[in-house]
Design goal:
InterPro entries: GDP_fucose_pyrophosphorylase, GHMP_Kinase-Related, GHMP_kinase_C_dom, GHMP_kinase_C_sf, GHMP_kinase_N_dom, Ribosomal_Su5_D2-typ_SF, Trimer_LpxA-like_sf. Pfam families: Fucose_pyrophosphorylase, GHMP_kinases_C, GHMP_kinases_N. Belongs to the GHMP kinase family. The chain has 1100 residues and is α/β, with parallel strands linked by helices. The radius of gyration is 38 Å and the shape is elongated. The chain folds into 5 domains: 10-341, no CATH class; 370-564, no CATH class; 568-707; 719-941, 2-Layer Sandwich (Ribosomal Protein S5, domain 2), CATH 3.30.230; 946-1090, Alpha-Beta Plaits (2-Layer Sandwich). Helix content is 37%, strand content 21%. Strands 1, 2, 3, 5, 7, 8, 9, 10, 11 and 12 form a 10-stranded mixed sheet that branches. It starts with 9 loop residues before the first strand and ends with a strand.
């Protein structure tokens, strides 16, 4: 998208009748809510004041209406043209109904998606008008001065290369032209353009002479024999030109083109924008030619303008000449552009559906495919060349080659033969298709219509025709067909008479497929619908069917197009789109696909389908009976609720412990998924009324999500095993000392749910810092039957918590409560049971003959990034197991820490305990499956490589602290949304970890440093904002002196580890950082690879 894309002041859509205005306005507003149109753009739908005012009258009326609105916006009490001086206005003419798309040519649905913006943006059907808005906004109008752009919507307009236009000082009209063959141009308008780009003349359906005059010049400067400059249906009027154009509404006769004329009971006149109005600006057109109407005769004849209006029109032309003549009119030629009018030829329409010319536009905002916005069950068979748009296909539907199926819900055993077109066929109608064998090349479609007098009745009518049929060919001509067979064959086969189809007073040459009363819409005695229409296509002699058909009120194509129910048509498309989306959401949820759904969920909220999607997710969760799937489902629901709040209602993250949700949470904790979901759904219904309540409900669904993650992680309990051993005597301290953890590559991939849905791999080093193991836990049995939990090594400054009742130990789920980690460790190590009918004292006396004192501390600052809390948890469990007389292996301890962190609700992964409890250098890894199991593979290092490790690695304390939990929630949220950059980054994280392992084994420290740098980039993708400014400066200062550097843990502060190029470079690093502005609190520390891991001993 161009940075110079036009910022519209207003976008106006004109339509032919009042009934269309409201649905069209809604379509515009939906696009604005989805961000396809800027939020501050004024959107207007303006119905033509009367029928047949032409594109010129419709433009004048639209300009008047938008000027009124802009004048009111700026505080004027009357219409003032001054508002045009600084406004950018786009007027789009929707025009008449279209036989191949019930929503009109403007809303022909394209086989295309809006280009992905990751989890941002929205989803929706893309139509011709969407493409035209983008074309004008991003290509044609870039850099233009204020003014009015007017664009038809009855064509596909391709502009592969944005034209270069010098807009400096431009005042007048600028028409868009594209090359066209003379054969194509015979049915359209053409420009004669001089070498300076000035329009000399305009012709409609020009003959050979006109074609020669309008021929484009080839590379030698000679006229081309084949290509002419086509009227492309787009024009720009500068603010001065628009001001003059607006003034026309005040002139007698021309006021008939506006709603003011209608309100004044003035008879309307029909004016073409190009062939009645802009024609007077053409340089070589004389006043006499213009005013007399001589130049406009071909257009008037083509569109049957009434002769008695010509006098009024001549007067109007004279006034236009006087007002507008003298304005310059230039052409903006698009050399590689094309214009494809959406004709009434079925053969041409199928060609455009299968190979849309707009595909050649190479617009980066759109992604083309043969199947878009469709759900196709695996049992269906769709030929590769078929184009499927906004459809649901279920059962055993077979779609043949070169078919175009749009807005259909087909079910059952249905065979659609080659080159067929189906539009708007629903699941009920598809039952009739199961009993009918369609012929190849048939167009079958349904129209929603409103018929009757003042009390109009909404109903549906089905139509059928053949690929080779023509709407306009007279019935009596030998080439005239219906459903690809001569009329006589059709009439003989069915028993229908021609008088059944056309009035007796109509001549055979006036009788066409377009006005044949073929299609039943209502019957006094019986229901009629698709069965009768299918009989027309391929049924034989059937007296009952013929009688019912004759007794039915029947419509022609001409009738149908005059009474299309546009609201119902758009509603059906939306219903299908979100019905298909419900299938997709459920499939993605149950299959665990890495498919991004946020744009769709956000769109559902905008268009009022959020509640249905919520119900679909509820259903999918219950069907799955899987904590992992349910956790993602609750994340979906939280996202939908937040989208329903529409950016209002407060911050997304917040507390989630409202008592109203407690009973639902309890059911989830007990593993009762369906009961828990029903309880959540019931409570959710009380929170849908206001944005603030929606946001709070979203927080509580994320709270439920955390419960289910916890249940999923708890499957790791299977890999925790202890054996009976010797218990130390009373008052004998058992002490565990642990190294720090340095994550060299792969972190974040160990985080639930990523670790069990994607799989993880992390290279961790157990390190001594300045020669010391920084983390210690010790425990002893004491005579008093209570728990004493001590935080800190210094008795004078330590925090002591005494638990005498079970309730004193039960608040471990709040990580901010005092001693929460130690309480969780006590519970996880099965020192006590919660809940229990036994008191705390009774449990302790039975198991230990007294109480337990547990004391933990670390020499590292809070938020160091070196895994302190998880390593402390491991040390605490180790000493508690030891004094309980249990033996264990390292794997059991690592999995136990996973459980502790879930009990704490901090939601951490496994890399910290792998690095801090396991000796040396290792790669921990987990598979994407249940139960969650962490395997550890040691990375063997020679003595030489270990020495280099100790000499070249340093730790730098940045002076900044952070809490990983502040970053974790966003990472988990993005993972559940399957943001493409997150999924790709998780792939890269594990890949980098295995590459790092290999580099260590080979002793290639330069490659290790490269892995570290890559890893740091990957961390910033996972958690944007995790690089403080001071850290940026420190890394920049050290860059030339290190192979690699990275913040430890989740980032955001704490320790940074660096791999220096020179050995023993602690003084050098200190010197560099000391001269750095803002780096006042840093410290530099030596690193040694620890070969022992956790060491548990009894103190003397």
């Amino acid at each position: 998208m161009s940075d110079q894309r036009t910022k519209w002041t207003a976008i106006v859509v004109t339509c032919t009748d009042e009934a269309s205005a409201e649905p069209l306005q809604y379509e515009l507003e939906v696009r604005q809510k989805k961000g396809y149109i800027d939020k501050d753009v004024l959107l207007l739908t303006v119905e033509d004041p009367q029928t047949r005012v032409g594109s010129g009258g419709a433009t004048l009326n639209a300009l008047l209406v938008v000027s009124e609105h802009l004048s009111q916006r700026h505080g004027y009490t009357v219409v003032t043209s001054d508002v045009l001086l600084y406004s950018y206005i786009l007027i789009l003419h929707v025009g008449r109904s279209f036989c191949f798309d019930s929503c009109g040519r403007a809303f022909v649905t394209l086989p295309v998606r809006h280009a992905s913006k990751g989890e941002a943006g929205y989803e929706g059907l893309v139509t011709n008008i969407d493409h035209l808005i983008c074309t004008v906004t991003d290509k044609l109008s870039t850099g233009c001065p204020p003014g009015v752009w007017v664009c038809s919507t009855d064509m596909f307009l391709t502009v592969p290369t944005p034209p270069k236009m010098d807009w400096a000082g431009f005042e007048g009209a600028c028409v868009i032209s594209v090359p066209a063959t003379q054969e194509y141009a015979r049915n359209h308008g053409i420009y004669r353009i001089d070498k300076d780009g000035v329009i000399q003349d305009i012709f409609f359906r020009g003959g050979p002479t006109a074609m020669k005059m309008c021929a484009l010049r080839d590379g030698t400067g000679d006229p081309s024999d084949h290509m002419v400059s086509l009227v492309a249906g787009v024009v720009f009027l500068s603010s001065r030109a628009a001001e003059k154009f607006l003034f026309l509404h005040a002139l007698p006769g021309l006021d008939a083109c506006t709603y003011l004329g209608m309100d004044s009971d003035v008879k309307p006149i029909e004016l073409s924008l190009f062939f009645d109005i802009l024609l007077c600006l053409a340089k070589d057109v004389t006043k006499e030619e213009f005013v007399s109407g001589e130049k406009g005769k071909p257009y008037n004849m083509a569109y049957n303008k009434k002769e008695h209006e010509q006098g009024i029109v001549r007067n109007a032309r004279a006034q236009m000449w006087n007002k507008l003549r003298g304005l310059p009119m230039k052409a903006m030629m698009i050399p590689d552009g094309s214009h494809n009018y959406l004709t009434m030829s079925p053969k041409e329409h199928l060609k455009y559906r299968l190979s849309c010319p707009l595909h050649m536009d190479e617009d980066k905002q759109f992604t083309w495919a043969n199947t878009v916005h469709s759900f196709i069950q695996g049992t269906c068979d769709v030929e590769e060349s078929a184009v499927i748009t906004n459809c649901t296909l279920e059962g055993h539907v077979t779609i043949g080659p070169k078919c175009a199926i749009s807005h259909c819900h087909l079910q059952g055993d249905i065979d659609i033969p080659k080159e067929s077109v189906l539009i708007n066929i629903n699941s009920d109608a598809s039952k009739a298709l199961q009993q009918h064998s369609l012929s190849a090349g048939i167009f079958l479609q349904a129209f929603h219509v409103r018929v009757g007098g003042s009390q109009k009745r909404a109903c549906k009518v089905y139509t059928v025709m053949g690929r080779f049929d023509s709407f306009e060919t007279p019935y009596v001509k030998g080439t005239s067909t219906f459903c690809n067979s001569p009329w006589i064959v059709f009439l003989t086969r069915t028993g229908i008479d021609r008088e059944d189809l056309w009035p007796t007073n109509q001549t055979d040459y006036d009788r066409t497929l377009f006005n044949a009363k073929l299609f039943p819409v209502w019957n006094l005695r019986e229901d009629v619908g698709i069965a009768e229409t299918l009989w027309l296509e391929g049924g034989g002699q059937d007296a009952g069917m013929l009688a019912r058909w004759r007794l039915s009120w029947r419509l022609s194509f001409e009738d149908i197009l005059s009474c299309v129910n546009l609201s119902a048509e758009f509603a059906w498309r939306r219903e299908l789109f979100y019905g298909m989306g419900r299938h997709r959401v459920k499939d993605v949820l149950l299959a665990g696909d890495n498919q991004i759904l946020m744009p769709f969920l956000r769109s559902a909220a905008v268009e009022g389908y959020a509640v249905q999607i919520l119900e679909t997710v509820d259903q999918g969760i219950c069907e799955s009976n899987s904590p992992s799937i349910a956790a993602r489902g609750l994340a979906f629901i939280a996202n939908i609720l937040a989208a329903m709040a529409d950016g209002k209602g407060g911050l997304r993250s917040g507390p989630a412990a409202n008592p109203a949700w407690k009973s639902a949470y309890q059911l989830l904790e007990e593993g009762k998924l369906c009961e828990g979901m029903r309880a959540l759904t019931k409570e959710r219904s009380n929170w849908l009324g206001r944005p603030d309540k929606l946001v709070r409900a979203a927080r509580h669904y994320e709270g439920g999500n955390q419960i289910l993650i916890r249940l999923a992680v708890m499957t790791a309990r299977e890999f925790i095993a202890t054996q009976p051993g010797e218990s130390p005597p009373m008052n004998k301290w058992v002490r565990a000392s642990c190294p720090g953890r340095m994550d060299v590559s792969g972190g974040w991939s160990d985080t639930p749910p990523i670790t069990y849905e994607h799989g993880g791999a992390v290279v961790d080093a157990a390190i001594r810092i300045d020669g010391k193991k920084p983390t210690v836990a010790r425990a002893r049995k004491i005579p008093e039957p209570h728990l004493v939990l001590v935080l800190g090594s210094d008795r004078e400054h330590s925090v002591q918590i005494v638990c005498k009742e079970l309730s004193d130990c039960s608040d471990y789920a709040n990580p901010r409560s005092s001693g929460a980690l130690l309480k969780a460790a006590v519970h996880c190590a099965e020192v006590i049971s919660l809940p229990s009918c036994e008191s705390l004292q009774e449990q302790l006396m039975r198991k230990y003959g007294g109480g337990i004192e547990l004391n933990t501390w670390s020499d590292l600052p809070q938020g160091s990034g070196l895994g302190t809390s998880s390593i402390l948890a491991g040390a605490a469990i180790a000493v508690l197991w030891r004094i309980s007389g249990k033996t264990y292996d390292n794997s059991s301890l690592i999995h136990a820490v996973l459980l502790v962190e879930q009990m704490l609700t901090t939601g951490g992964g496994w890399q910290d305990q792998v690095g801090g409890l396991t000796p040396g250098l290792n790669i921990g890894h987990s598979e994407a499956k249940f139960p969650l199991k962490v395997d550890i593979t040691p990375i063997p290092l020679s003595e030489e490589i270990q020495r280099k490790f100790n000499e070249h690695f340093l730790l730098v304390y940045t002076g900044k602290t952070r809490l990983a939990r502040n970053l974790l929630q966003d990472v988990v949220r993005n993972w559940y949304a399957r943001s493409p950059y997150i999924v790709e980054n998780c792939d890269n994280l594990t890949k980098t970890a295995w590459e790092c392992k290999k580099a260590f084994e080979e002793g290639d420290f330069e490659k290790v440093g490269a892995c570290m740098n890559t890893y740091w980039s990957q961390k910033k993708v996972m958690a944007p904002g995790s690089e403080p400014l001071v850290v940026q400066r420190m890394m920049a200062a050290l860059q030339a002196h290190v192979y690699g550097q990275c913040l430890a843990g989740a980032g955001g502060g704490g320790f940074m580890y660096v791999l220096t190029k020179e050995p023993n470079a602690i003084d050098k690093v200190t010197e560099i950082l000391s001269s750095l502005e803002g780096a006042h609190e840093f410290t530099v520390h030596s690193v040694e690879l620890d070969g022992a891991g956790i060491e548990v001993v009894m103190e003397d």
